[in-house]
Automatic annotation (TrEMBL):
GO terms for cellular component: membrane. Gene3D superfamilies: 1.20.120.1760. One of its GO terms (molecular function) is CDP-diacylglycerol-glycerol-3-phosphate 3-phosphatidyltransferase activity. This is CDP-diacylglycerol--glycerol-3-phosphate 3-phosphatidyltransferase. It holds the Pfam family CDP-OH_P_transf. The keyword Iron does not apply. It is a multi-pass membrane protein. One of its GO terms (biological process) is glycerophospholipid biosynthetic process. Keywords: Lipid biosynthesis, Lipid metabolism, Membrane, Phospholipid biosynthesis, Phospholipid metabolism, Transferase, Transmembrane, Transmembrane helix. It is found in: Membrane. The keyword Repeat does not apply.
Length: 203
């Protein structure tokens, strides 16, 4: 069993490759960000929903392909969270502009991003580049990216809007809780990394 674990660790390589299928999918997600923002601000909700759903599908696909076929790369590790955060930010801007979500929701999520940014800057100043992506953080992003299209649908005045509203807010609340829980877990990771770095520096 230990031999299998060591073999898996040896085959798990993060490469410096640029042109891989997961990276192309991540780039396509980034290209969709301005399209999505334009669509939601101009009330082209059908297009906005399609772009957001495609973003969710490609987000799942690029991670799955990268892990299954050993295509994980440094660029992919950078692009994936950047695309997630840009979609969350642009959705918050668009839905707030349309008065679909309250300002407090924007404040809660943006404050979390500020906390994470400060944490990563502190790590970088100590010579540490980022933190491993945590499952809770991915789950939080998953919930939020499902919540937003449902909340957009909830703006309709028909039965579909009535059904989408409670489901959308359920995803939103789970996303908020997990988003902040992930920040706490990242803070614990950061403290551990800095502690080990301090021990190495003094030894």
């Amino acid at each position: 069993m230990n031999g299998e674990s060591r073999a898996e660790e040896r085959t798990h390589v993060v490469s410096q490759r640029f042109l891989t299928l997961p990276n192309v999918l991540s780039m396509l997600r980034l290209v969709g960000v301005p399209v999505f923002l334009w669509a939601i601000v101009t009330e082209r909700d059908g297009l906005a929903l399609v772009v957001l759903m495609l973003s969710g599908v490609t987000d799942y696909a690029d991670g799955k392909i990268a892990r299954k076929f050993n295509m994980e790369s440094r660029l992919g590790q950078l692009l994936d969270p950047v695309a997630d955060r840009l979609y969350i930010l642009t959705t918050l801007i668009g839905l707030t502009w349309r008065d679909i979500i309250p300002v407090w929701l924007v404040v809660v999520l943006v404050t979390r991003e500020i906390v994470m940014t400060i944490m990563l800057l502190v790590l970088r100043r100590r010579g540490q580049v980022g933190l491993p992506v945590h499952f809770v953080g991915k789950a939080a992003t998953f919930n939020l990216l499902y919540a937003f299209p449902l909340l957009l649908l909830a703006d309709r005045s028909d039965w579909l809007g009535a059904v989408a509203q409670p489901v959308g807010w359920a995803f939103a609340w789970w996303g908020i809780v997990l988003y902040w829980l992930a920040a706490v877990l990242y803070a614990v990771q950061a403290r551990s990394v800095l502690s080990r770095a301090g021990q190495v520096a003094t030894s």
